[in-house]
Amino acid sequence: MSPRHVPLVETTRGGTTECVHYGSIAVVDTNGRLVASAGDPESINFTRSSLKPLQALPFVEDGGLAHYGFGSHELALMCASHNGEAVHVSVVQRILARVGLDESALQCGCHAPSYFAATETPAPTGVAWSSLHHNCSGKHAGFLAYCRLHRLPVENYLDSGHPLQQRIRTTASRFAHGDTLAQAIDGCSAPNFAMPLKRLAELYAWIAAEETPESKAITFAMAHHPDLVSGTRRADLAIMQSGRGDWISKVGADGMQAIGVRSQGLGIAIRIADGNSRAVNAATVEVLEQLDLLDDPSGTPLAVYDCPPIRNYRGIETGGVVPVLKLIGH
Description:
Layout: E1 6-13, E2 16-29, E3 34-38, E4 44-46, H1 52-61, H2 64-68, H3 72-78, H4 86-98, H5 115-118, H6 137-149, H7 163-176, E5 182-185, E6 191-196, H8 197-209, H9 213-224, H10 226-229, H11 235-243, E7 247-252, E8 256-261, E9 266-272, H12 277-290, E10 309-311, E11 317-323, E12 328-329
Helix pairs in contact: 1-6, 1-7, 1-9, 3-6, 3-9, 4-6, 8-9
């Protein structure tokens, strides 16, 4: 069945609507109750990188942090889609060294650091980037640490039948409550799952608000090190800075955004169906405002995403990004 997405964000040119970005939103409490929504909160969506805190959870549950002497910095990188800045690379190297491996064990692939796209800076030519710079290298370092902890093979740690990936699927199934978990391969070659949008929101409500040692460790790491979870000029950094320690946030590729609000016991999942990132960011600010979690974006790091103008290459304002979503309470 096709998702029943609705218009969430429009872009204008000269005051006329030019593009319409459809999608859905789910706001869920820690009991799994749908609090508010737009579009189709039951729609099946791939979680992409918003799954990363859950992918790190088995390592935390099994005492991996204490075993290797890892702290919140290392855990933040395991949950990160980082910019490949020097601070990110150094923490990933530290994780690998502590478990007796190096970057050659990473199977995430390689790309230029996300820092350049985030800051709209041309990447230097003639530079040989490594897997350490891949935005998912922290997650993969965490995967390898889990394998070392349990004396599992590392050569095939991304195979869907590997005990690590089976454990992650079992963990994801706990939050899916029997709903369908479609599986496919993510951009970093790791298995990824699609689940109802409301289940992803519930996952973030649980991580942010539940008082288990594991959820508290992940929430602390993400909320206290948003620069490690993302990086310079990234939306996750702006969201968590604006939340002042109360919010955790994780973007996913192709139009996914998940947020957990500790004080309210809420999880928020937003999906823009066409994967447009500026539409995701604008919708996120609007959702936070409609939920009375954000009074005035203008005084926060989220100001740049609040109905931003669209400019051409000469800097002339040609239009804007306008949220049109309306949350419906349940």
